[in-house]
């Protein structure tokens, strides 16, 4: 859980830096923002999703579970 918090804080700082660079019209600002989005999409989100669903808590949200099939029959 600490890893996710640290990675999220890093993402927020990264995007804030990108926003500041955009406001200053720095030539590399678009690259910084793009790398921040890639970081979120390919590093932060997969780690968060794995952490959230590793214990199988999602099974109660499945619509076509075996329990419902038994109830229908």
Defining key terms:
mainly alpha; elongated; 3 helices; 0% strand; 73 residues; single chain
Overall, the morphology is elongated
Structural class: mainly alpha
Question: SSE order in H/E notation?
Answer: HHH
DSSP, total strands: 0
Q: Please tell me the overall pLDDT.
A: 87
Instruction: Please outline the major beta sheet.
Output: none
Q: For the CA atoms, what is the radius of gyration?
A: 20 Å
Total helix count? 3
The fraction of residues assigned to DSSP E strands is: under 5%
Give the N-terminus to C-terminus distance in angstroms: 42 Å
Low-confidence stretches: none
The residue fraction in helices comes out at over 70%
Q: Can you walk through the features of this model?
A:
The protein is elongated. The protein is 74% helix and 0% strand. It has helices at residues 2-23, 29-53, 66-72. The chain is an all-alpha fold and 73 residues long. Helix 1 (2-23) runs antiparallel to helix 2 (29-53). It contains 3 helices and no strands.
What is this structure, in a nutshell?
With about 70 residues, this protein is mainly alpha-helical. The chain is built from three helices and no strands.
Write the layout of secondary structure elements.
Blueprint: H1 2-23, H2 29-53, H3 66-72
């Amino acid at each position: 859980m600490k890893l996710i918090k640290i990675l999220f804080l890093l993402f927020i700082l990264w995007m804030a830096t990108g926003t500041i660079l955009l406001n200053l019209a720095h030539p590399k600002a678009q690259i910084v923002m793009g790398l921040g989005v890639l970081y979120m999409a390919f590093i932060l989100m997969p780690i968060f999703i794995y952490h959230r669903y590793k214990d199988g808590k999602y099974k109660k949200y499945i619509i076509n579970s075996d329990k419902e099939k038994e109830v229908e029959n």
